[in-house]
Specification:
homotetramer, about 325 residues, alpha+beta, Gyrase A, domain 2, 5-stranded antiparallel β-sheet, two-stranded antiparallel sheet, flat, EC 2.1.1.148 (chains A, B, C, D), Thymidylate_synthase_ThyX_sf (chains A, B, C, D)
Chain lengths: ~325, ~325, ~325, ~325
């Protein structure tokens, strides 16, 4: 369970209060505001705040004085048009702020998306809790033999057991070293009055990359979709996809028309290369095209045939 | 008057409706939400939406589960600390969205601040109204003779009258040419059925830079303060300062503690160069320092003495 | 002719000098360094400086100590892979700096690409030359009747002549007003010693949007390609496409492997929506699909059929 | 020693070759191009490429056709002016690319500077070397008792020895676990043919934050100075200051006039708050000001007196 009772109380307190506002408001998102959606073994995603809704996209695209059209269907049509033609600025007019708890090695991938605002819990200033990520056994995958940057079969039997033991033992030991260097006992009190304790900014380096950190992460809707398109993709590492999938559910609540256009023109869409497009045209004209006369490498040919739902024959 | 009756009605309609929210809400800002604050002769600034408040800065700095402390004085102290030590990321956690109407030559200065989101009214797609900026006579300044990028005395008499006539006549004429090329009469209808009308994206180039445009401009609090520090400065062009001053008033309503720290550590602060600091130390130690033995140029010496409230003696 | 003799001399002087460097250097780009490529009637594009080459993309992708592989074919393969899989950061490792002279209404479109560095000629500080854009007659298009943001047929006969006259007369007149307000004669000298002259920062607003400005524009290769994909597109305004086309030629010289991958996976590529992809799959499986049972609007159906080289039948 | 013989050979090879270029070139920087400057126990900083020089700042500020003035003193004067008045865009016209090897916990601080381009060595794709940071004994500091985010006295005797032992042992053990999970022996070969080996993207999480990573980091001169002002500051963590100090030396070689202005107006400068400025004015007018009647807190008073070289008396 990712939250302490105190934290749950603080959240419940926030959720119990409403005040009137004149701003664009989304009831389906208000419903889950501040709630922690669990991710991995100790992580979570919480929505802390948001600005705008589907109508705000329309309103900005039109630079209008009021809230845009009142018909949802007209707004949805314009939103589809904007998405199809890569008009990104109207989507930048909505903003969302998350509180995320995640393992450090995932935080290092995530932060590469620069067009966002971040405040991370500081281990220079505070002491990290003893919380580390251990994969569930069904996610304990071998190195892929085909793709240097991918996962293969799930490990089993003795090898799986040994890996889990190693991860747990080394993580436990790293924290024992951390606490001892800090001169802290289990309750956070000074352990040995004759010692000074190493500076926090140094002691933290003994922790391993599966330790959890947390941050506030604020992003506009356009950049959120860019993040989700890359991180909800099947090539993304499983541990970040878990977070991306939760955020897609949140987006469905927040901006349903935009989310639908996003599925149609980004998530479910296909990009054909110039050569790939020429092949499709030839096939539709009745020609039988094979890999050797396609102009594509075997790998690209397989990828294209998979997209088109055809046998690859190579 | 910058608004049409229709626009005023749309705004009044928006202002008449409130809904409940669980989000951080600022009553003093809600009070003026959507209202148009006039700027120059036809422009305005309106707040369309906002995210966060002073407490949200504190909450992000602490990566807290609840809304941070409940004592305003503690929050204000932390905010002052963050501002003093250039911790910018907590201020990025608040966001505000403006609707601004402004002359094109000012829009061209404004857009140089890149860390913001913008949707501008498109003259490729729509037809611009006949609204152009004419300075009030007290702002009709001569070129400065000291500073190539500055204003001198206010023009008077015949020269002032001639300038105002020229500005008005040329602006009127530019619009006549624009409308004629578009083949539009005064009501926006086709003027001459035998003509096609020039493409909007071309016709717009006949308008002059004092014509008004408008945009939605969304920015986080840190970057807003950066904008205001530069554009509310006495070296900024008067016409953009008018907008910056309105936005400072809005900021005072929105985040009063942050606004106070901003005045203390940015707007009212002084930056001393290494040499300037050494001079102050020498003066405080009782030494009489003069420009020739100061290590500063005459210009920098005058600037320093002015900051220190001392006679320049050069 | 866009350059004065003095400017041409300065450029020739720069081009006459070479010095030794250990940096990655591209002879085909050195050949044209500093040269002005004409654009529209008075504009140009010049390359002022560059950093990196195709091999620098590979070197960064591998975080290597040396200059990466020596075989051009291996580098090209990796570059194609990076482009296909949207790995953008290695392309950010190359940088190019342009000097561009362009009409203000085009500069206003261009500057919306925020991820670049810009220094523009300041009309607060200096006086603009009398240079304005007048379209060639073959580019004098009517407003499109199908697309609010597009051009239709070319204007002809009396209407074309009238438009050109209006553009020229109004531009001339705007400059006369500008010079008179500045109190400058044709040689830039004070015209009337009894007058002060309006501040430059005010006088400039009398000029129209077809006047030329100029800037230094510096951008990394990834963001350059993003700019070119949008601005060399057939939906972009003709006047900005002229610049984009010149820059694509420059890119071909600078980074030929990247430029080839860019044509294959971006410029010549097609994006199919989820529904569009399903239609292609059905057609390839032998099904006859028509617009009404396609799930697409008529407009999207036409766009898809055009991409696929099929008759639209609607 | 941070480099292998192969890496040193690659660097020597690069350094041995020069080609002619027409670009702005800085001999003092060419002299050290590609060289590795050691940082901490296994890290380094290398300059891989650069664009522009002091004259390029001037050239951009003037949007000039040639290379600006030829007199270094005039250029230096303009550079000082630009720095003093916070004109940042001309400094954005120079760019530098570094190859940096650094501990992961420092990389996590560093990456918070978002306005830069980064390519990091991927532990999803490749296997990290067994290289971790152990502080030299003179940098093994206790937690500060005054400042939660700072260091106090250097640890000594048994406590220091114990901390160093813990860091070394836990780092060694973390790598043993990493290699065993990967099923790799010391030469990188498969250790046990009956096992699959855990995916690299998972195994990496067993490593601790003192392990070294490396990246290419490219930044413009303005944002480099912003980074250096914060990270060469006495409040920055020692381990990142080591890198910042090396980069300041590099900057001195690259753009000596800009570096001088940077020391004068940024590094050695002082920012006085509005209240602080008022106090200095009172003191210069002969008044004796004490903390209680200063309007400053004790902490701010001490900071101000230290800046001014006066006793704090509180």
């Amino acid at each position: 369970m990712p939250l302490t009772p105190d934290q749950s109380d603080e959240i419940a307190h926030l959720r119990s209060q409403t005040v009137p506002t004149r701003r664009a408001t989304v009831p389906a998102l208000e419903e889950i505001l501040y709630e922690a959606f669990p991710a991995l073994d100790h992580g979570f995603v919480r929505v802390i705040d948001y600005m705008g809704d589907d109508a705000a996209v329309v309103q900005a695209a039109r630079v209008s004085y009021g809230r845009g059209t009142r018909k949802v269907s007209e707004d949805a049509g314009l939103i589809r048009y904007l998405m199809r033609h890569w008009h990104s600025t109207p989507f930048e007019m909505c903003e969302i702020k998350f509180h995320v708890k995640l393992p450090i090695f995932i935080a290092r991938q995530w932060i590469r998306h620069r067009t966002a605002n971040v405040n991370e819990y500081s281990a220079r200033y505070s002491i990290l809790d003893k919380e580390f990520y251990i994969p569930a056994s069904e996610n304990l995958s071998a190195q892929s033999t085909l793709n240097r940057q991918g996962r293969g079969e799930v490990l089993e039997g003795a090898e799986a057991a040994r890996v889990l033991d190693l991860l747990r033992e080394d993580s436990e030991r790293a924290y024992r070293g951390y606490a001892e260097m800090l001169n802290q006992d289990e309750d956070g009190a000074q352990a040995d009055p004759s010692r000074s304790g190493l500076a926090r900014e140094l002691a933290r380096m003994n922790l391993s990359l599966n330790y959890y950190t947390q941050w506030y992460w604020k992003v506009d809707l356009h950049n959120l979709m860019h993040f989700l398109r890359l991180r909800a993709d099947s090539h993304a590492q499983y541990e970040i996809r878990v977070y991306a999938d939760i955020m897609i559910d949140i987006m469905n609540r927040w901006v349903p028309s935009t989310a639908e256009a996003f599925r149609e023109y980004r998530l479910g869409a296909a990009s054909l290369s110039a050569t790939g497009l020429a092949i499709v045209r030839r096939m539709l004209a009745g020609e039988t095209v094979t890999q050797p006369d396609s102009g594509l490498s075997k790998r690209e040919w397989r990828e294209l045939m998979e997209q088109l739902g055809r046998p690859a024959d190579v």
